[in-house]
Amino acid sequence: MAERRTFEQSMSELDSIVKQLEGGGLSLDDSMKAFEKGVGLARECDALLNEAKGKVEKLVRDAGGNFSTEKFEPVDRDQ
């Protein structure tokens, strides 16, 4: 079974593909293959971020001075 890439590895590969596409030196066929791979990598990165987001916890001190953990709830920046 293939080893899973890290977020950083996937982002680095995606960055490389974007630079290749922006460079304009690829044939149409190679550009389409690179684009398809890039879309897959972007989805992979999104899944990894969502997985990490689900695991993030913040440390909270209660009124008695004891520490506990609770799930991280992101701030909605649109409001």
In short:
With 79 residues, the chain is an alpha+beta fold.
Any overview of this molecule?
57% of the residues lie in helices and 13% in strands. With 79 residues, it is an alpha+beta fold. Strands 1-2 form a two-stranded antiparallel ribbon. Helix 1 packs antiparallel against helix 2 (28-55). The longest helix is centred in the middle third of the chain and has 28 residues, at 28-55. The model has no long low-confidence stretch (mean pLDDT 83).
Strand content: 5-15%
* Class inferred from helices and paired strands: alpha+beta
Summed up, the domain count is 1
Q: Over all CA atoms, what is the radius of gyration? A: 19 Å
**Mean model confidence by pLDDT:** 83
Name the features.
79 residues, alpha+beta, two-stranded antiparallel ribbon, 2 helices, 57% helix, elongated
Strand-helix topology:
Blueprint: H1 7-23, H2 28-55, E1 57-61, E2 67-71
Helix pairs in contact: 1-2
